[in-house]
Amino acid sequence: MAVKPVVLCLNRAGEATAHRIAEILDAPVHGRETRVDQADVFFANALDHTRMLFQAGTPIVGVCASGILIRAVAPVLSDKTAEPPVLSVSDDGAVVVPLLGGHRGANRMAALIAKAIDATAAVTTAGDVALGVALDEPPAGYRLANPENAKGVMAKLLSGAGATVMGHAPWLADLPKGDDVTIACTVASSDADLVFHPLQLTLGVGCARDCAPEELYDLVMETLANSNIAPAALRAIYTLDLKADEPAVHALSRAFDIPVRVFDAATLEAETHRLEYPSDVVFAEVGTHGVSEAAALAGAGEDATLIAPKHKTKNATCAVALAPTPITELRGRARGKLSIIGIGPGQHSWRTPEASQLVNEAEELVGYGLYIDLLGPLAYGKQRSDFPLGGEEDRCRYALERAGEGRNVALICSGDAGIYAMGALVFELLDRGPDEMGVTDAARRIEVVSTPGVSALQGAAARAGAPLGHDFCAISLSDLLTPREDIIKRLHAAAEGDFVIAFYNPVSMRRRTLLAEARDILLQHRPADTPVMLASSLGRPEEHVRYRRLDELEVDEVDMLTVVLIGSSHSKLAQLGEGPRMYTPRGYARKIDGDLAKTGTDL
What we know:
Low-confidence stretches: none
Mean pLDDT: 92
Strand order of the largest sheet: 3-2-1-4-5-6-7
CATH topology of the largest domain: Nucleotidyltransferase, domain 5
Keywords: Cobalamin biosynthesis, Hydrolase, Methyltransferase, S-adenosyl-L-methionine, Transferase
Number of domains: 5
Domain CobE/GbiG C-terminal: 201-321
Distance between the termini: 70 Å
Radius of gyration: 30 Å
Largest sheet: 7 strands, mixed
Oligomer: single chain
CATH architecture of the largest domain: 2-Layer Sandwich
Number of helices: 20
Structural class: alpha/beta
Number of strands: 30
GO molecular function: hydrolase activity; methyltransferase activity
InterPro entries: 4pyrrol_Mease, 4pyrrol_Methylase_sf, 4pyrrole_Mease_sub1, 4pyrrole_Mease_sub2, CbiG_N, Cbl_synth_CobJ/CibH_dom, CobE/GbiG_C, CobE/GbiG_C_sf
Helix content: 25-40%
CATH superfamily of the largest domain: CobE/GbiG C-terminal domain
């Protein structure tokens, strides 16, 4: 899913310009609180907000001074080949400046905006200025096969060299002519200095279940070589939807760095009249007379032709089709994707950039409403499906089945999604067959991505100091899904083992006794003055952290949003100027004391 840009507006002077640009780009306006009257989303801190959007991969157009955007993103700059475009526009709309990602869309956006609002696009990249073209940014429908050569070729041309262009590449028509540099635009392999491929070719594949990736890869490479087709000239890989989760197909996708799209059997069967090698055997097995040829043709469109009919091995087939013009819109549907995302306790600075990027790329957000709300502006404009507390199974089933329809879905959890959250339930449903109340076959073929988050116990520990500095465990005190006797057994084991313990789900409106029972069990094994930390609403404005002795832990002081950290018999509170900090020694004290003893002896 393409990520929409965001237009930032920091004051009323630029508000009219911001809304004009937002209309041009079909983008939302994010406005500074109290300084902007109208916006789709409001924010309090411009630097934090800009940095969050940038780390999530969002293209940014800031109607503000360039320096504000530069200061915001400077601490997180790392890879110019992956970072989103960043542009600044003067409040009066007179000047548009692409600051970052000039050859990743910023220059194009600057030109588009400038033309629409009668502004000057202050493009500074050398090729655009001197030659009127960026050699490493071909137009849609073309791919540069050897981008590593672009800088050197550009340097030669800027130094007065001329180029010979072979093939149809109209965007290069104004380059200076000469024999110093060769540029080719072809679907074939070439040894030219720069090679552009028009993306008119589709690769159709089919294979037996669990076909070895090497077998499919070798077949495709042999087929391409025999037809004088460069692998980089392929636009996408197409196959039957029953193969959406086939490892060999996705290994091929990674090897060629192109997407996989799928069609159902009925769509492929409609291509039978164009197949060179239809098969009744294949039809009997999957409902279409051909997979590889039909998929390639369906992907390339009704005017396509087969330029490499079906080739096969024992377990794999492939074919290549040629569209009459470069393919810019992919046919078929993507393999569905479910991202299981832990967003941390709630504070956006604790959310990982990977989590933010997956949220940004998702079409639909699924989760408990409060957790989706905590995403703030990242959730704006996305389809969201809110489920109440207690609706965990429904939530996971829904997310899986929506992904099974080919959507990119994000399942939003607090903390870490794999720690007392939805991760385990997702995989449990995927692990069940249809007769075991599992999910559909389509849902089982999706891509599932789990991304780590800052867990509540980590957030609490960071606020405390270092209470998890030695062995620790986590125990949920909810007996809704875990038998009470199992919880009691674990409490005794953790108490006897002298672990630092993080209690999740310590109480609810109806569950009020297990926390007190846990306290009493622990008091049998560790001192009454063992430090206890109570951390509520971590990372949110209403955060509340306090310490108690174990024997003074009261149930009424704890709610569902509280993490309870119980120290071991070795845990301590360091009394510092800004208040107590909790830590659990790991054993360094023995070394320190030993060194101190030696020093004393020497004295």
